Amino acid sequence: MSEAVLSQRFLLRRPGLLLSGVVLAAVLIAAFAPALLTGQDPITGIPSERLQGPSLSHLFGTDETGRDVFARVVHGAGLSLRATVLAVLVAFAAGSALGLLAGFRGGWLDAVVMRIVDVLQAVPAILLSLALVTALGFGTTNVAIAVGVANLAAFARLMRAEVLRVRSGVFVEAARASGVRWAGVLGRHVLPNALGPVLVLATVTVGTAVLEVSALSFLGFGASPPSPEWGALVAGGRNFLATAWWMTTFPGLTVAAVVLAANRVSRALDGERS
């Protein structure tokens, strides 16, 4: 039986995973080609159409200035996803580098890095992100850096644990005994064999990063208005909950759907790895 048929049967037996893939694919399309999903202007509204409920012409309704909420959610995917990816990359790169060096070199370097990691993990990630973005200033990039730094401790700890497991392997000892320098052993043997679980953690962190980026955007630390960002869209509808519930509900459901989809895909990847 061909691999394509096996893959189709696998997906049909796991509809939740298939739905999660569809959600993430839709978000990627919204981020890179929003015109494929909507032709509405996310910035300029039509005052005569303000606060209209969901309909065929406005799937998510309109806001207080007549802007199409669906268009703003679609165009907001670009900013939110960019911040999320940058945050995960910062956490992955910085955390993995620290864990790799600490686990491989050991000694005082390991002790110093792990104490820093302990301090970072002692503070809730959202509070640490809030403190960092307050120091860095407003903006999507600063939000992403703050969220990434707040989440790097988990990557450092996991990478260190994997490096400690791998460096005791026979192939690592053979490479060192044959005269390969420690940088070569690290890059050719230790890192490739320790990277798998860290990559799975990166997919799990995508959901967390979406929530934290949206939370900081909700508090007003993200992109400046009228640029659409998912957290800012939720915040913008707070004063209209009684009369225009859709302004907050649909952006909030979008964030929830992306987080759940990312977590579902990460569990599947973890299952495949193990």
From TrEMBL:
<keyword id="KW-0813">Transport</keyword>
<feature type="transmembrane region" description="Helical">
    <location>
        <begin position="16"/>
        <end position="37"/>
    </location>
</feature>
<dbReference type="InterPro" id="IPR035906">
    <property type="entry name" value="MetI-like_sf"/>
</dbReference>
<feature type="transmembrane region" description="Helical">
    <location>
        <begin position="243"/>
        <end position="263"/>
    </location>
</feature>
<dbReference type="GO" id="GO:0005886">
    <property type="term" value="C:plasma membrane"/>
</dbReference>
<feature type="transmembrane region" description="Helical">
    <location>
        <begin position="83"/>
        <end position="104"/>
    </location>
</feature>
<keyword id="KW-1133">Transmembrane helix</keyword>
<dbReference type="InterPro" id="IPR000515">
    <property type="entry name" value="MetI-like"/>
</dbReference>
<keyword id="KW-1003">Cell membrane</keyword>
<dbReference type="Pfam" id="PF00528">
    <property type="entry name" value="BPD_transp_1"/>
</dbReference>
<dbReference type="InterPro" id="IPR050366">
    <property type="entry name" value="BP-dependent_transpt_permease"/>
</dbReference>
<feature type="transmembrane region" description="Helical">
    <location>
        <begin position="198"/>
        <end position="223"/>
    </location>
</feature>
<protein>
    <submittedName>
        <fullName>ABC transporter permease</fullName>
    </submittedName>
</protein>
<feature type="transmembrane region" description="Helical">
    <location>
        <begin position="116"/>
        <end position="137"/>
    </location>
</feature>
<comment type="similarity">
    <text>Belongs to the binding-protein-dependent transport system permease family.</text>
</comment>
<keyword id="KW-0472">Membrane</keyword>
<keyword id="KW-0812">Transmembrane</keyword>
<feature type="domain" description="ABC transmembrane type-1">
    <location>
        <begin position="77"/>
        <end position="266"/>
    </location>
</feature>
<dbReference type="GO" id="GO:0055085">
    <property type="term" value="P:transmembrane transport"/>
</dbReference>
